[in-house]
Design brief:
The chain has 177 residues and is of the alpha+beta class. It has helices at residues 2-13, 78-103, 122-148; strands at residues 16-20, 31-36, 42-48, 55-59, 64-65, 70-77, 150-155, 162-165, 173-176. It is built from three helices and nine strands. It is rod-shaped, with a radius of gyration of 23 Å. The two termini are 31 Å apart.
């Protein structure tokens, strides 16, 4: 029971990255979710701020949000999620396949009278199963990553403590001090 739960936790939180909000200048033109003190999250688009190197946000209703009043900005990128999912899936699948191949290899000589026309050593099975499971894992990771996306959370340094269990960003547990 613990193994499927661990896999689910890793899959749900593997592609969430945290950065300081001062690097949010790269969000100009991006659709993001903006969080302010005492207000629910707002869908907005990043625009160049009034000061050089800053980012302000324009909400869907036309409201201009000063970047200095924002405590958290969440940006989800599906193409990046697909690439990360492909890599993680291929790594996990390839590793599992290699372990299974090593565990089921036939390193002793075939002494059967029934014909030993196809026999692989443990190393050969590890490479073969590692490749097959790596391709399968990469394909599954590609689809899951494209659907979920890679979430980048830009947080203000003024928010000293952040505790979140669950949530729309995909993190199951986030603790920051």
């Amino acid at each position: 029971m613990r193994t499927p739960l661990l896999v689910a936790v890793l899959a749900a939180s593997a592609c969430t990255h945290h950065q300081n909000i001062v690097s949010a200048h790269e969000l100009v033109g991006e659709e993001v979710e903006v969080e302010l003190y005492g207000r629910p999250p707002i869908e907005a688009v990043g625009v160049h701020g009034r000061l050089p190197g800053t980012t302000d946000y324009v909400a869907k209703n036309g409201e201009v949000i000063d970047g200095n009043s924002v405590i958290r900005v969440t940006d989800t990128r599906h193409a990046r999620g697909a690439v990360e999912g492909l890599g993680l899936g291929a790594l996990i699948g390839g590793g599992a396949g290699a372990v299974l191949g090593l565990a089921s290899g036939d390193d002793d000589e075939c002494e059967s009278d029934h014909g030993c026309w196809f026999e692989l050593s443990a190393g050969e099975k590890a490479v073969l199963l590692g490749f097959v499971f790596g391709v399968l894992g990469g394909g599954i990771g590609l689809v899951v990553g494209a659907v979920k996306g890679s979430t980048i959370v830009y947080e203000s340094q003024s928010s000293q403590m952040s505790v979140r269990v669950g949530g729309d960003g995909g993190s199951l547990v986030t603790v920051r001090w």
